[in-house]
Design brief:
5-stranded mixed sheet; 11 strands; disordered N terminus; globular; alpha+beta; 208 residues
């Protein structure tokens, strides 16, 4: 059977099914003679609707699972020494950046989600990126894709939010991310919270 014939037959089948569904229980769909309806038509339509819903649910689940599995969203602690006139790196290792999502910064708790975050009341947070786990890091959160400066990402203790950056867009699938911190106003000390290089969901964007 040719592709064109298959297309025509499938289209006719869809139209017939649609007409049967709308005509069910009506006096006469086209104002003509009303033939006796199959006793199981309603059951057939219910089964058809259930199959469509099941397929849609499965497809949505598959998309969500793919999205989640392709993101580095596990929380890890950060310790950043905030001092006057300097940007300091997180004391822990940089993390793989697996997609284009924003970086998640939690300055409310540590990674156990029980221990409170601690440190200066506010600090400037930056997300640096690299193409390997050991190569030089570049600030990729302070500018947008057009080279325009973004607002400073000022993180307040007790808050949870996100930082836009262009790490995965710049370096691709083998990219790495690292947090840096700088002084805001007169606040200094060691900022201790948690973060993930990738994220899901939405919320405050610190550098929007």
């Amino acid at each position: 059977m040719s592709n064109s014939n298959k297309f025509v037959l499938k289209s006719v089948a869809k139209l017939a099914k649609s007409a049967a569904r709308r005509a069910y229980g009506a006096a006469s769909f086209f104002d003509f003679h009303q033939p006796k309806e199959p006793a199981n038509l309603k059951a057939m339509m219910r089964k058809f609707a259930a199959a469509i819903m099941a397929a849609a649910t499965l497809a949505t689940s598959a998309v969500c699972n793919i999205s989640a599995s392709a993101a580095n969203i596990t929380d890890a602690n950060f310790n950043i020494t905030i001092q006057s006139g300097l940007k300091s790196a997180n004391a822990y290792s940089r993390r793989l950046k697996e997609n284009d999502s924003s970086t998640y910064v939690n300055y409310a708790t540590r990674a156990d989600h029980t221990t409170p975050a601690s440190g200066p009341y506010k600090f400037k947070c930056y997300v640096y990126g690299s193409d390997t786990s050991t190569s030089g890091l570049v600030d990729l959160s302070s500018y947008d894709q057009y080279g325009n400066a973004r607002p400073d990402a000022v993180v307040t203790r007790g808050s949870i939010g996100y930082i836009y950056q262009l790490i995965h867009e710049t370096f691709g699938d083998n990219a790495y991310a690292q947090l840096y911190g700088g002084q805001y106003q007169s606040y200094t000390g060691t900022a201790k919270g948690c973060w993930s290089s990738d994220s899901v969901g939405s919320g405050i964007v610190y550098n929007a």
